[in-house]
Amino acid sequence: MATRLSRGGGRARPAGSGGFELFSWYFFRISGLALVFLAVFHVIIMHVINTVDEIDHAFVVDRWSSPFWQIYDFLLLTLALLHGVNGARVSIDDYFRSSSWRLAAYSALSLITLVFLVMGALAIVTFDPSQFEAVAGR
Amino acid sequence: MTIGNIYRGREGMVSWALHRITGLGVLLFLLIHIADIYIVRYGAEAFDDLLIIYKGLPFRILEIGLVASVYFHAINGLRVIIIDFWDGAVDRQRELFWAVVVLFTVMFVPTAILMLIAAFD
């Protein structure tokens, strides 16, 4: 079966009708499309409309008191992290030629992904605004 | 054997390199950002003390680079998706590349002006 050459867009779609690489290829594009909206609006809201001058603990408490922003941020966290880590995985394939170094890099990346995914999810899901409302007072 | 567009030279190579650099850069910031947002649970004092790092001028310049990276990666990513799924786009590579440059400029220039005004205010 002939493999498709890159058309000048992304890397060539992996041959075959299944497997992790094909799933990864589609995941990149579908999550990417969602992130165009999620990440760009997040950046505009948090770095242009508001700036680091306005953002503080009370600001986050206020924002995460709304289920809408909790769900928005949870989607942004998971899609951005998995999209980014998938990119790092492809980069490892490109730059690490020796199999032992590649295994070390994969292991480190897997551990980082797990730790940061859990940390991020905990930060959003277990956030309790009532714990801070009295302090925030806005 | 597949040939990535790193070998294609010209516009394709520039886009490919920028897409990878901006992607890995944004990922690095995302990891830092997950660590800082985790501190929210420890209360206002701990979190606000940490945010002082982000309020200094060096970070605010880096922050403009972060926003530029997100914009470019998003717009160029749309170009990649269009070429991957629409056969007609393959013959219009150059036009699509310049569309990315124009759209990025239209979004980034006002953003950078607003961020610079806020940073030096």
Overview of this protein structure:
- The complex is a heterodimer of chains A (138) and B (121).
- Chain A has helices at residues 20-49, 57-64, 67-95, 99-125, 133-136.
- Chain A is mainly alpha-helical.
- The longest helix of chain A is centred in the first third of the chain and has 30 residues, at 20-49.
- Chain A is elongated and about 50 Å long.
- Chain B has 121 residues and is mostly helical.
- Chain B has a single domain (5-120), classed as 3 helical TM bundles of succinate and fumarate reductases, CATH 1.20.1300.10.
- Chain B contains 4 helices and no strands.
- Chain B has helices at residues 10-38, 44-55, 57-85, 93-120.
- In chain B, α1 crosses α3 (57-85) and α3 (57-85) runs antiparallel to α4 (93-120).
- The model of chain B has no long low-confidence stretch (mean pLDDT 90).
- Chains A and B meet through α1, α2, α3 and α4 of A and α1, α2, α3 and α4 of B.
Features:
heterodimer, A: 138 residues, mainly alpha, 3 helical TM bundles of succinate and fumarate reductases, elongated, B: 121 residues, 81% helix, 0% strand
Shape of chain A: elongated
CATH class of chain A: Mainly Alpha
**Based on the structure given, which CATH architecture of chain A is correct?**
Up-down Bundle
CATH homologous superfamily of chain A, by name? Fumarate reductase/succinate dehydrogenase, transmembrane subunit
User: What's the structural domain tally of chain B?
Assistant: 1
Report mean pLDDT of chain B, rounded to a whole number.
Answer: 90
Number of DSSP helical runs of chain B = 4
Low-confidence stretches of chain A: none
Q: How is the CATH topology of chain B named?
A: 3 helical TM bundles of succinate and fumarate reductases
Rounded Rg of chain B: 18 Å
Q: Determine the strand fraction of chain B and express it as a percent band.
A: under 5%
Biggest β-sheet description of chain B:
none
The number of distinct β-strands of chain B equals 0
Q: What would you call the structural class of chain B?
A: mainly alpha
For the largest beta-sheet of chain A, the strand count, sense and barrel status come to: none
Number of helices, counting only DSSP H or I runs of 4 residues or more of chain A: 5
Radius of gyration of chain A: 19 Å
- The CATH architecture category of chain B equals Up-down Bundle
CATH topology category name of chain A: 3 helical TM bundles of succinate and fumarate reductases
Question: What proportion of the residues of chain A form beta strands (DSSP E)?
Answer: under 5%
Order of helices and strands of chain A: HHHHH
